[in-house]
Amino acid sequence: MSAMLSIRDLRKTYEGGFQALKGVTLEIEQGEIIALLGPNGAGKTTLISTICGITTPTAGEVTVGGHDILRDFRAARGLIGLVPQEIALEPFERVLNTVRFSRGLFGHRRDEALIERILRRLSLWDKKDAQVKELSGGMKRRVLIAKALAHEPRVLFLDEPTAGVDVELRKDMWDIVAELKADGVTIILTTHYIEEAEAIADRIGVINRGELLLVEQTSALMSRLGKKQIEVQLSAAISAIPPTLARPGLSLAGEGDVLVFEYDTQAERIGLTGLLNAIAAAGLVLRDVNTRQSSLEEIFVDLVSEETP
């Protein structure tokens, strides 16, 4: 099956020589959710802008549903919905007309039932006759999402869609994303809420300085790069780790009453049994034992740090 979105060696160099994208290659299947993570200035927004036709690529090829974004722009763009970071709306227009206009802009016939469903889904129906300028920031964000959905896109870009919004909208947003995925819509999102990416994305892509460092199944990435910690709480504090316990990955924490052992989940031999036996042999009494898995945020920070000179 051909990819819904295919990106091959995409490059963008601005006047003056700055390379915002350095040969990005990525294929995304229909109905897949991909989260793009990266620090500010990594190239996330440039990548989205280029695919959506807002920015012209310097080199490379992008197809959406088989349509080239340059040679067949109208067909490609008609498949795309975009929720941008910036809130750019006509302040004196009414909500209902704003969303209607977006549908008409893509050449679709008027569909009042569809527009009503979208507005109700986003808790905007009771605001349909309000001018945009009368809305709160969170409500304006909802209008942006409604506009992006009005022409029934098959690929949806969400560029930091929940940045600075309330918890209720964030929950609504991810509920809608789940519904769209079930309908076969392909979703690409950028977010600084890394725990959300971990929870909702099928794959995670990490981009930094215009390069795609990796794209991997979320669970596989967590398993491959994640580390686990065992925290052994002692019944009494010690001033230093006894020589018989010393080994790589073991440290003393808390007020001298916690031993922390960090290990690679993929290692053939972890050595937990030997560590616990050595603790007992050293005359130390265990009060409790806890385990902890690295979060995606920690993995992301480690990856980006490795790439930063």
UniProtKB/TrEMBL annotation:
It comes from the Bacteria. SMART domains: AAA. One of its GO terms (molecular function) is ATP binding. The keyword Nucleotide-binding applies. Pfam families: ABC_tran. Keywords: ATP-binding, Nucleotide-binding, Transport. Residues 5-234 form the ABC transporter domain. InterPro entries: AAA+_ATPase (IPR003593), ABC_transporter-like_ATP-bd (IPR003439), ABC_transporter-like_CS (IPR017871), ABC_transporter_ATP-binding (IPR050763), P-loop_NTPase (IPR027417). The keyword ATP-binding applies. PANTHER family: ABC TRANSPORTER ATP-BINDING PROTEIN. This is ABC transporter ATP-binding protein. It comes from Antarcticimicrobium sediminis. The lineage of its organism: Bacteria, Pseudomonadati, Pseudomonadota, Alphaproteobacteria, Rhodobacterales.
